[in-house]
Design brief:
single chain, alpha+beta, Cathepsin B, Chain A
Length: about 200
C-alpha cells in the first residue's frame, strides 16, 4: 500500500513540477523513527522582508509600538491589516490609547500593563504569537520573539536585520522597569518550519 501511494505521489510530482523530481521511499527498519529536532529558534521566526522598521509619525515621534504590531500581524498572516495600520497610524502611544485604537479597528488582541505578568509573555511565545514589549523605561517597544528558561529573543524595529539575545533575567528586569506593558495580536501564527 505504502509503495503504491508513493508511486502515485511521485507521478503527480513529476507531472506537475517542470522537471523537479521528489522521491518518496519507504523507511527501512532501522530508520522508522525520525531523530529529535530542536525547536525552531526564535519561536517567532519572521522573515527579514516582513519585519517592520520604525518610522517617524506625522508629529515627528517614533512609531515603535505600531511597527511592533505590524511585524506581529504579518507573522500571524494579517498582511492587509498590517499594511493598513502602517498607512494609518504612527507616533508614540500609551497602553490605553493603543488599546482603544485596536478596539476601534477590530483587531483582536491581548495585553498586560503594570502587572509584571511573565505568564502573559510565556503564553505569547508558547503560542508562537510573540508580543510587543516595552523597554528603556517605557520609551521604546520591541517584539519579544522568543522566551526560554535562559534567554529572551528581541526584534528591535530600529534594527530589523537581527534578533538580539539577552539573558532572561536581564530582559525581565528591564521590562518590569518599563511598566511591564506587553501586547499581542491574537490570530493564527505561522506554522513551524518543517523538521
Amino acid at each position: 500500500m505504502m509503495r503504491s501511494v508513493a508511486a502515485v505521489l511521485l507521478l503527480i510530482v513529476v507531472a506537475g513540477c517542470d522537471g523537479i523530481v521528489i522521491r518518496f521511499e519507504e523507511p527501512s527498519v532501522d530508520n522508522r523513527r525520525a531523530p529529535a529536532v530542536p525547536i525552531e529558534c526564535p519561536i517567532v521566526n519572521l522573515p527579514v522582508a516582513l519585519r517592520q522598521a520604525n518610522w517617524r509619525g506625522n508629529e515627528g515621534e517614533g512609531s515603535c509600538v505600531h511597527a511592533s504590531l505590524c511585524s506581529l500581524l504579518r507573522w500571524q498572516g494579517r498582511y492587509a491589516t498590517a499594511d493598513y495600520w502602517r498607512r494609518t497610524y504612527g507616533n508614540g502611544e500609551w497602553a490605553t490609547s493603543f488599546a482603544q485604537k485596536l478596539d476601534r479597528e477590530g483587531v483582536r488582541f491581548a495585553y498586560t500593563v503594570g502587572q509584571n505578568d511573565v505568564d502573559f509573555l510565556e503564553w505569547a511565545c508558547r503560542t508562537r504569537r510573540g508580543a510587543g514589549v516595552t523597554v528603556l523605561g517605557g520609551r521604546h517597544m520591541v517584539c519579544l520573539v522568543h522566551l526560554s528558561e535562559t534567554h529572551a529573543g528581541l526584534l528591535d524595529n530600529n534594527s530589523v536585520t537581527r534578533i538580539k539575545w539577552v539573558p532572561r533575567r536581564t530582559f525581565l528586569a528591564e521590562w518590569r522597569d518599563s511598566n511591564s506593558w506587553g501586547v499581542c495580536p491574537v490570530y493564527a501564527p505561522a506554522p513551524p518550519l518543517p523538521r
